Amino acid sequence: MAVLIAEETRCPACRSRAFRYQELLYDMPHFGNVLVETGYCSVCGYRLFDIEYADVGRPTRIIFAARDGEDVARSYLIRSKTGTVYSPDLGFSLEPALGGEPMIITVEGLLYRVADYAEKLKVLEPGSAQRVDEFIRRVYRAIESGGFTLVVEDPLGKSLIKPYRPESIRVEYL
Ligand SMILES: [Zn+2]
């Protein structure tokens, strides 16, 4: 990954000089050169996220198979506001409407977040605590040793996975 621009500049929404802007260039298996623009204003909370590559705009499904802990720790998810992320084996799904903010995160970081959400759910629904505990244990095992599938679907093709091993993803254009 190359950082092309990283600067604090004027916010397009509120005009204060608290807008952290970055342009990142990734060379990604299956996608080629991918340019990601992100920005966040610490005053008004305005967020910017955009992504450019040859196939952007095409409905995309990416299937990522994590073989081991290294795949989990070293593969990145780039998720736009329109991306749905789910794992049929682990049994979770993050819809665009739920916490749909754009993010660039390792698969490991994503799974820690999922475990955090589940932990909060337990407080809200004490009756399901045992089931949630089992789920969290499954997620921690997956972080340690892989052995699961993560699927990312995006109708605008703006969510991607940058795999540690190129052969661990499959891309389908829907
Ligand atoms: Zn602002």
What labels describe this entry?
single chain, 174 residues, N-terminal domain of TfIIb, Jelly Rolls, five-stranded antiparallel sheet, 12 strands, binds zinc ion
Walk me through this protein's architecture.
- This protein is an alpha+beta fold.
- The protein has two domains: 1-54, N-terminal domain of TfIIb; 57-174, Jelly Rolls (Sandwich).
- It has three helices and twelve strands; from the N terminus they run E-E-E-E-E-H-E-E-E-E-H-H-E-E-E.
- It has helices at 69-74, 107-124, 129-145; strands spanning 2-9, 19-28, 32-41, 47-52, 60-66, 76-79, 84-87, 92-94, 103-106, 148-154, 160-162, 169-173.
- It has a five-stranded antiparallel beta sheet. Strands 1-2-3-4 form a four-stranded antiparallel beta sheet, with no helix packed on it. Strands 9-6-11 form a three-stranded antiparallel beta sheet.
- A hairpin with a 4-residue loop joins strand 7 (84-87) and strand 8 (92-94).
- Helix 2 (107-124) runs antiparallel to helix 3 (129-145).
- 26% of the residues are buried.
- The model has no long low-confidence stretch (mean pLDDT 93).
- The protein binds zinc ion.
- The site of zinc ion (ZN) has 8 residues, from loops.
- Zinc ion binds at residues 11, 13-14, 16, 41, 43-44, 46.
